[in-house]
Amino acid sequence: MSDIKKEKEELIEMFGIHFENFHNMPPLGARIFATVILDCCSTGMTFEDLVERMGASKSSVSTNLNLLLKLGKITYYTLPGDRKKYFKPSPFSERFSNYMKMIEFEKIILDRMLAYREKTAVCIAEKGDLEKTRAYKEHVLQMEELLTSTINKFKEIEKSKASNQ
Q1: Which Gene3D superfamilies match (predicted)?
Q2: What share of the chain is helix, strand, coil (3-state, %, to 5)?
Q3: Which of 65, 80, 102, 141 is spaced 20 to 30 Å from 24 by Cα?
């Protein structure tokens, strides 16, 4: 095995473990996503490519591809006259937009929590929780600002890449 191929296999495994542990993906889905990230620069990978590469059953690969599509981690395209789907990673801007949805919902919860605590906090512990919640909301707002900036940068890069093709 060449050094580059070995490095690629190790990267796929590292990505796989990361996606399993921090994104709660099943092991096969995590490896499929990692493979698609590393092997799909421009052309995408077919279902058949992934079945062969993963060494897993068609049913297992299909189930995990559907999960990755539902999670917005991957996308696919088709070619005229070709019935195959070509899978590739979703653009970074789209994947990061999912984090924005989470932040938006968290802000709603925090606003309700703050309004509730401001009306009901009577003991020292509850007043301390109120201050912690305010500090956490400030953190969430800073994360939103940073994420918005990052998404805009990705959109610029993706737009530039699309115009160069």
Answers
A1: Winged helix-like DNA-binding domain superfamily/Winged helix DNA-binding domain
A2: 75, 10, 15
A3: 141
Give the CB-side neighbour count of residue 119, counting CA atoms within 13 A: 5
For domain 3-89, the CATH class is mainly alpha
Tens-digit pLDDT profile for residues 110-145: 999 999 999 998 889 888 899 999 999 999 999 999
- Token pair, residue 154, equals 């990705």
52: number of Cβ within 10 Å: 12
DSSP category for residue 45: B
How many residues does this entry show for the chain?
165
- Dig out the tokens for 61 from the structure: 């690969």
Q: In a 3-state reduction of DSSP, which class is residue 106?
A: helix
| Cα 131 from Cα 112, distance rounded (Å) | 14
Q: In this structure, how many other beta carbons lie within 10 angstroms of the beta carbon of residue 104?
A: 11
Residues 127 and 114 sit within 8 Å (Cβ to Cβ): no
